[in-house]
Amino acid sequence: MNVSVVSLGDLVVDLIAPVKLPVMPFQHQESGGAQPEPGGSGNFMILGARLGMHVASVGTVGDDLFGRFLCEVLEREGVDIRGIARMPDMQSTLVLDLIDRDTGQHVFIGSSNRANPAPFSAEMEAIIAGTGALFFQGYTLLEKANVHITPRAIATARTNGVPVYFDIGPTVKHVPLEELDRIIGLSDVLMMTEDEVPLAAHGQSGEAAYGWLLAHGPHTLVVKQGAQGCTVIRKEGRWSAAGFAVPVVDTIGAGDCFDAAFIYARLCGQDWAGAGRFANAIGAANVQKLGAGQNVPTCAEVQAVLNQNGVWNPLSC
Question: pLDDT tens digits for 246-290?
Fold first, then answer.
């Protein structure tokens, strides 16, 4: 088994600030301190590495304070960063995360990277050609610095028989529909929340959307349903995995962690239902903590969720 994954793009630094929402003009408040953390794909990669998966990143950051911070943290967490291009003319993507601990609500305030497109290097190609899976999110399709990297990365995966996992994400609504259709057609597994299904299926929802998507390229749909768990849909059938009842502190990063756990479980040979059940446990462990990045679950925290619910863990974590 090739238990390895390449995460494409979405290299973001989150500045996490606990506040009381809504934040109103001239109503000043004490936040309790802001903490920088890897965001976006950083959540996916750190969680994947902690599970024992070989995780590599391909994408771009600025050769600035935030880009260097992100690379340092990822490398310390065991992520292979050889495929990250550090661009001297680029400002790394920074997102301010305002989190209300009392309500569990949050607001993102972000600025996307601005730079000339980076080239797709021979090292990036080699990293992708030898991996067990390629993963990316809808936000990656909007990154101008990766405009040459993203299509070449997907093409390399397809050429080398590497399964392509695409998480739709809410920002995909800003991707031109023709381009989105093309990317969906090149994907093997689509991952999305219930609310994001219409974004991928031309406004359709439910069975009509599932049928349309399965007829346009992907062989598998993974629908994330929050506390209710998830459902895996294929032409030959579907499998549901129930969620885990846990106290919710913050939902940031839960979907990213779910994605990493699901791919890890599949690469380890788990069936679709087993992968969904394990991914649900990861998500449940994540929402009990504030923020994400280096705060994503440890194996011990995941095992605690499984133990509390009497579920056997068939994987090494």
Answer: 888 778 789 999 999 999 999 999 999 999 999 999 999 998 887
* pLDDT reported for residue 57: 98
232 DSSP β-pair partners: 222, 239
DSSP 187-208: -SEEEEEGGGHHHHTTT--HHH
Confidence of residue 105 (pLDDT cuts 50, 70, 90): confident
- Burial letters for 14-28: b for 16+ Cβ neighbours within 10 Å, e otherwise? bbbbbbeeeeeeeee
CATH 3.40.1190.20 fits 4-11+40-92+114-308, yes or no: yes
Tokens standing for residue 51: 């599970």
3-state secondary structure of 61: strand
Q: Which residues in the chain belong to E strands, given as ranges?
A: 4-8, 11-18, 35-40, 54-62, 80-87, 93-99, 106-111, 134-137, 164-167, 189-193, 220-224, 229-234, 237-242
Cα dihedral 220→291→228→44 (10° resolution): 20
pLDDT in tens, 38-48: 998 999 999 99
Averaged pLDDT of the chain: 91
Strand order in the sheet with 93-99: 35-40, 11-18, 93-99, 106-111
**Of residues 241, 233, 238, the one with CA closest to residue 284:** 241
pLDDT at 164: 98
